[in-house]
Structure formats: C-alpha cells, structure tokens
Amino acid sequence: MLRNVLISLLLLGLAPLASVAAEPAAPSASAGFVFRYVTATDGVPLNVVETGNPTGSAIIFLHGYTQSYLSWHPQLDDAALRAKYRLIAVDLRGHGASGKPWDKAAYAGHLPWARDVRRVVEELGVTRPMLVGWSFGGFVAMDYVREYGEAAVAGVMMTGSHGGLLSRPVGQPPAFTGDLDLAIDGARTFMKMMSVEPPAPATVDRGTYANVMMPAYVRNAMWGKRLDNTDLTPRLQLPVLMILGRQDLSLPADAIASSLASRSNITVRIFEQTGHSAFIEHPARFNQELATFVGRTDSVKGSQE
Predict the structure, then answer these.
(1) What angle do CA 46, 47, 50 make, to 5 degrees?
(2) Among 46, 197, 298, 299, which residue's CB has the most CB atoms within a 10 Å radius?
(3) What whole-number distance in Å separates Cα of residue 96 and Cα of residue 110?
(4) Distance between CA atoms of 57 and 124, rounded to whole angstroms?
(5) DSSP string spanning 68-84?
(6) pTM over the 0.85 mark
(7) Helix, strand, coil percentages, rounded to 5, for the chain
(8) DSSP structural state of residue 198
C-alpha cells in the first residue's frame, strides 16, 4: 500500500506581505557554501544555497517533492562545476529549511512557484540562468518559463521529469496526517525507490531528513499545484535537455523520447541502469551532460547579446 502511494506521488511530479531584502549571506559549515534567506513576494522565507564561481554562468537547481538543496550535493560539491559556474540551490516553499505556509493558496497554481524563483533571480542579480529541475522541480522550472517567458532563461534541464510537457496520469490524492512514525517509514522507503542500486547511506539520510521536514498539511495542499504544461509544448523554442532513467518507476523513458522526437529544441537522453535520480546515481556523467549543455546555451546567449 505504502509503495503504491509513493509511486503515485512520483507520477504526480511531487515523488510578511511585502517583499524585503535578503538577509546578509553568512559562511556555512558546509565547505564553500553560502546560505541566505530570500523573502518571497508573499513573505515566505526561502532558503538559498550558493557556491562556485561568482562570475560564472548561473545554474539554479530545483529539487524534487519532499526534498531540499541537500539532493544536489553531487553537483554542488563537484570541483569542475564549482570552478566554472555559479551554483545556486533553492529549498522550495514548504520544503527543507524554507517557510511552510498554512494557507493552501500558497501552493496552488503556478504563480507562487514561478515568483519564488524570480525573487531568487532578482535578489542574487542573476541574468538568464540555466534551470535544472529534478522530478517536481522540473514542473517548477516550467512554471518560471510560463510566467516570465523563454527569454528569462538560458535553458532548462530536467531529470526524472518531463515538467508537464506531456500529459500525465491523474491519481486520487492520499490524505496525509501528522503521524511521524509513518512519515519516517515512508521517507526511508521513498529514498530506496529513487535508485536502481542502493544509495549511499549519506544520500539516504539527507533525503529521509528532508522528507520528514515536510508537514502533512503541506503535502495535502500541494495537490492544488498546476502540473499540466502541455499547452507550452508545441510553441516552446528554448533549449531543453531531459535526462531519464531506464528503470525509473514513474516515467516511461522510451515513450517520452518518442513523444518528443519531433521537437528539435528538446533532447532526451536515457541513462541505463538508472532510476529516478540520475544526478545522484551517475553524477560524473550527469555533471558532464550539464556542463556541455550550459556551454552550448552560453554560446547561443553570447551571440544574442
């Protein structure tokens, strides 16, 4: 029963009143990481993590449902990426160390999510970032494109996600309660389902802790999130790269590749022996794909400036 609920969540894409300035950045115990809070337009504090080259092209990482910036350690810790790029990871509203508003409207539609990314972009002085979204984060990336247009980004890279560019099954939402014992058991099972091979203990721990940090009321409210972006697919022109796992329980990789084959701006790569988290399961290959993609979009961006 629990396994079926978790798979349905993966299918879902989820597996103060005025804006104020961000708090001053402070050094973190995590080597080379700088943490700051950026206040969303509706007052929600957003935990933002930054590392890497401050003068490099900006890459903004958007994690999956119930997770946090911790998911992106294989990228944030990568020496080659840090030397060349400005790496930014955001705890989405309701997740991780960010604020968790009670009002269901704070999670509904696409606007809250798009505006959150915009606030981070504005506060950090970023120009046309590359958005990298895992699972639910792919939908958030497309929220941003929907609201602010293709010119607002250099490109979008998704992993374990099609960002709603294709239709998706609609399931019956489970009703979550404040049973933390159940939440812990579910979080451990959730993390084991992310990968083909057993994840490293540190990966399981980080994912489990982040998962349990999401309250039941947020999980229930997130069923009001817009997840359909099929209207964007035929007119989308910006570069999109999808990295999918052959053994991903939530996404039929071959079917997705076939459905998007006619879209010249969308590239689908399928990693063998890979589940829902290619960036964790095969970080070296994933990071090289990311660097190559950013290099390609940078050359296009440079020719347009």
Answers:
(1) 125
(2) 46
(3) 20
(4) 13
(5) -GGGGHHHHT-HHHHHH
(6) yes
(7) 40, 15, 40
(8) P
